[in-house]
């Protein structure tokens, strides 16, 4: 998959996390295993998506929309956690 190799994507994820670390707190998960699970899932979806939608521009729009939704969902979750912390304290 050209530049979308498993190793490349894992390295890019780690580079992004270095700038903006994820707080796993006391969750009982192995961080590297979680990264690998996510990368494997995304690459599998991309293989199917490429077969169904060969137009790269359309695929990019779908990825951007999905990223925007995940970012919004993350922001809302973060705000809820902050609010819950304020209400508890």
From TrEMBL:
Q: What is the lineage of its organism?
A: Bacteria, Pseudomonadati, Pseudomonadota, Betaproteobacteria, Neisseriales
Its protein name is Uncharacterized protein
What domain of life does the native source organism fall in? Bacteria
């Amino acid at each position: 998959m050209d530049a979308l190799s498993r190793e490349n994507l894992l390295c890019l994820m780690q580079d992004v996390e270095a700038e903006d670390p994820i707080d796993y707190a006391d969750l009982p998960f192995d961080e590297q295993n979680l990264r690998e699970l996510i990368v494997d899932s995304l690459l599998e979806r991309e293989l199917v998506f490429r077969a169904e939608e060969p137009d790269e521009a359309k695929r990019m729009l779908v990825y951007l929309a999905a990223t925007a939704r995940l970012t919004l969902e993350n922001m809302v979750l973060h705000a809820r956690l902050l609010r819950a912390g304020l209400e508890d304290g």
